[in-house]
Amino acid sequence: MRRVVVTGLGAVTPLGVGVDHVWNRLLDGASGIKLIDSFDVSDLPAKIAGLVPAGTYADGGYDPEEWVDKKDLKKMDVFIAYAMAAAKQAVEDAGWQPEDQDERDRTGVMIGSGIGGLGGISEGSKLLAERGPRRLSPFFIPANLINLASGFVSIQYGFRGPNHAVVTACATGTHAIGDAARLIMFGDADVMVAGGTESAVCRIGLAGFAAARALSTNFNETPEKASRPWDKDRDGFVMGEGAGIVVLEELEHAKARGAKIYAEVLGYGLSGDAYHMTAPSEDGSGGFRAMENAFRNAGIAKEKIDYVNAHGTSTPLGDEIELGAVKRLFGDHAYKLAMSSTKSAIGHLLGAAGAVEAIFTVKAIQTGDLPPTLNLDNPSEGCDINLVAHEAQQRKVDYALSNSFGFGGTNASVIFGPTP
Amino acid sequence: MSDVAERVKSIVVEHLGVDADKVTDNASFIDDLGADSLDTVELVMAFEEEFGCEIPDDAAEKIATVKDAIDFIEANQ
């Protein structure tokens, strides 16, 4: 099978825009979770979210007009604009500028989203009810379709290879990267722009997740304390927004053009819970089997893993179930590896989560820095492995794994290894 | 330039993201100003909004240039 490496990274997150900027703030223990002030939250039980900060790219902020032509912005929901910004960073970071049609035909795009244009659909629905069908924009449907993130990116760069989009709720980003890597392994493409994007922090999104009793509601006064994976006081996840995009490339293709290589995509595993719409199966078998399947094609011993970027959403049920699965899978080695949840700093980016967390996992391999789990003041019983509480740690990281689990009982794990 | 012409041209500039000096009377939205069929639908909606008039689909199909838009609006205000 052909080997696949990561050659470009791009991120739009609640800690800012630009991978290095975000990574440094993450290691500093900064939080991107704030009180929402862009729409009315007075009647909502959860009033906080991980919000992408406004500002210029030079200052680590987000200004859509720096990334997308102003006239095109009205043709796309925010989630697509985030993907365009992250994709531009990743493509430029990779230095991938195909010179002929054949190279463009061998470059594909696989960007997913959990929910797509939820805010845009909600606004369109209001407009239809209040002012009638003649006022609905001709861009309403394409602006909100999930696969239009891939569509816009492919049009922007002329990438005419596989044009695909993943929709697996909160596992989307990890599935997109894993599936895109497989397309390269199978020879369907030489280069794939892959990842996830999300902008569901709007009234209907917040109200919907709150109705499902999934969100933290006890920390509206201290937003930066709300996302606290494995801590006794955790009470639900905190919504986040943004995008993570990576450039994946066939190893020899990357070497031939002298590309900088961050890491290798070694293993990818998937599984289903077949259990419940929103709750993880209590025995953790879904996450366990996704990780186990990732090892099956990674071809490395479990003891090689130095770092796990956990799904760790800060929900009462999920965190301990995932940790239990990690302990069962790794045995004694669970006490030697380190595991953290970066959702403690940025919240849960839903369909973008796995992609942004894959970037953090790759950065851990590149730099040897382990991002912290914030707010882990009093670990729940049995949460006794190194969860990188409060402060970043340093250690050599050769191999690392990232987990993502989604509503519908969908699970994905990806294993990255050192530059070949 | 009439008031209607000025307002039509400023809508075209804003919606199509083109330079004002390109928006001449005879400029075609699709051939000269880079619009596609969805852009022209949206442009017609913006004219309706700005001038408080309704432009039926069969009339909208005949609005291909800046002047077509100005003439229709002036005749139907």
Automatic annotation (TrEMBL), chain A:
Catalytic activity, reaction form: a fatty acyl-[ACP] + malonyl-[ACP] + H(+) = a 3-oxoacyl-[ACP] + holo-[ACP] + CO2; (9Z)-hexadecenoyl-[ACP] + malonyl-[ACP] + H(+) = 3-oxo-(11Z)-octadecenoyl-[ACP] + holo-[ACP] + CO2
EC number per UniProt: 2.3.1.179
One example of a Gene Ontology biological process annotation: fatty acid biosynthetic process
PROSITE patterns: KS3_1 (PS00606), KS3_2 (PS52004)
Primary location group: membrane
Pathway the protein contributes to: Lipid metabolism; fatty acid biosynthesis
Domain of life, per lineage: Bacteria
Primary gene name: fabF
Ranges where the Ketosynthase family 3 (KS3) domain occurs: 1-418
Record InterPro entries: 3-oxoacyl-ACP_synth-2, Beta-ketoacyl_synthase, Ketoacyl_synth_AS, Ketoacyl_synth_C, Ketoacyl_synth_N, PKS_Beta-ketoAc_synthase_dom, Thiolase-like
Gene Ontology CC, one term: plasma membrane
Subcellular location: Cell inner membrane
GO molecular function annotation: 3-oxoacyl-[acyl-carrier-protein] synthase activity
Protein name (Swiss-Prot/TrEMBL): 3-oxoacyl-[acyl-carrier-protein] synthase 2
Protein role: Proposed to synthesize NOD factor fatty acyl chain. Involved in the synthesis of a highly unsaturated fatty acid moiety, which forms part of a lipo-oligosaccharide that is responsible for host specificity. Involved in the type II fatty acid elongation cycle. Catalyzes the elongation of a wide range of acyl-ACP by the addition of two carbons from malonyl-ACP to an acyl acceptor. Can efficiently catalyze the conversion of palmitoleoyl-ACP (cis-hexadec-9-enoyl-ACP) to cis-vaccenoyl-ACP (cis-octadec-11-enoyl-ACP), an essential step in the thermal regulation of fatty acid composition.
Residues forming the catalytic site: C170 (for beta-ketoacyl synthase activity)
Family (UniProt): Belongs to the thiolase-like superfamily. Beta-ketoacyl-ACP synthases family.
One Pfam family cited in the UniProt record for this chain: Ketoacyl-synt_C
UniProt keyword list: Acyltransferase, Cell inner membrane, Cell membrane, Fatty acid biosynthesis, Fatty acid metabolism, Lipid biosynthesis, Lipid metabolism, Membrane, Nodulation, Transferase, Transmembrane, Transmembrane helix
Keyword Nucleotide-binding: no
Automatic annotation (TrEMBL), chain B:
GO cellular component: cytosol; membrane
Pathway participation: Lipid metabolism; fatty acid biosynthesis; Glycolipid biosynthesis; KDO(2)-lipid A biosynthesis
Subcellular localization, as worded in the UniProt entry: Cytoplasm
Modified residues (O-(pantetheine 4'-phosphoryl)serine): S37
Keyword Cytoplasm: yes
Major localization listed first in the record, in broad terms: cytoplasm
Keyword ATP-binding on entry: no
Domain Carrier: 2-77
Post-translational events: 4'-phosphopantetheine is transferred from CoA to a specific serine of apo-ACP by AcpS. This modification is essential for activity because fatty acids are bound in thioester linkage to the sulfhydryl of the prosthetic group.
Organism superkingdom: Bacteria
Gene Ontology terms, MF aspect: acyl binding; acyl carrier activity; phosphopantetheine binding
HAMAP family cross-referenced by the UniProt entry: Acyl_carrier (MF_01217)
Matches recorded under PANTHER family: ACYL CARRIER PROTEIN, CARRIER DOMAIN-CONTAINING PROTEIN
Protein name: Acyl carrier protein
Record organism: Pacificispira spongiicola
Lineage: Bacteria, Pseudomonadati, Pseudomonadota, Alphaproteobacteria, Rhodospirillales
Gene giving rise to this polypeptide: acpP
